[in-house]
Design brief:
By secondary structure, the protein is of the alpha+beta class. The protein contains four helices and six strands, in the order H-E-E-E-E-E-H-E-H-H. A four-stranded mixed sheet has the order 1-2-3-6, sandwiched between helices.
């Protein structure tokens, strides 16, 4: 802080290529989900739009023999949440990530569609290793469909 009480921005790294915007980070995470699933499901679609013009991050058309419904996957990045801070005592606070109204509205819209929906919150996803991410995705898909005997995690 300077003498006036304001802080100055001091760049930590002059290499501008290492700085990622929130949108780039979101797209990277969404693409990593797509890349993992592409190994198991070659027909997976990134950035799918429904007939009603609702955008889905990832759409997985399923073989009706194994799954009664197709699967939509939504990666919920930081912009899908608000931080709720509750004061519990004079010196303590609890923090909680709460979905914003746009996210709740889209969830409501998608709940009326005839497919399974998997929501992936960024704060869980970003804490996982690559192997854990793969397992997380496959377990969620297995919980939607009877695929246990047909797809094995590497």
């Amino acid at each position: 802080m300077d003498n006036c009480g304001s802080s100055r921005y001091v760049p930590l790294n002059n290499n501008i290529h290492n700085i990622h915007t929130a949108k780039e980070n979101y797209q990277f995470n969404q693409f990593s989900i797509f890349s993992i699933l592409k190994q198991y499901f070659p027909n997976i679609i990134n950035e799918y739009t429904t007939n009603e013009l609702i955008s889905l991050d990832i759409f997985l058309p399923m073989n009706k023999q194994y799954c009664s419904k197709n699967i939509a996957i939504e990666f919920n990045g930081r912009t899908h949440y608000n931080l709720l801070i509750n004061k519990t005592s004079s010196n303590q606070h609890t923090c909680q990530m709460v979905e914003n109204y746009n996210t709740k509205y889209k969830k409501w819209l998608l709940s009326n569609y005839p497919f399974h929906i998997i929501y992936i919150p960024y704060y869980k996803w970003n804490m996982l290793t690559h192997k854990q991410k793969e397992k997380y995705l496959m377990e969620d898909i297995h919980s939607c469909c009877d695929l246990k005997d047909n797809i094995h995690i590497r």
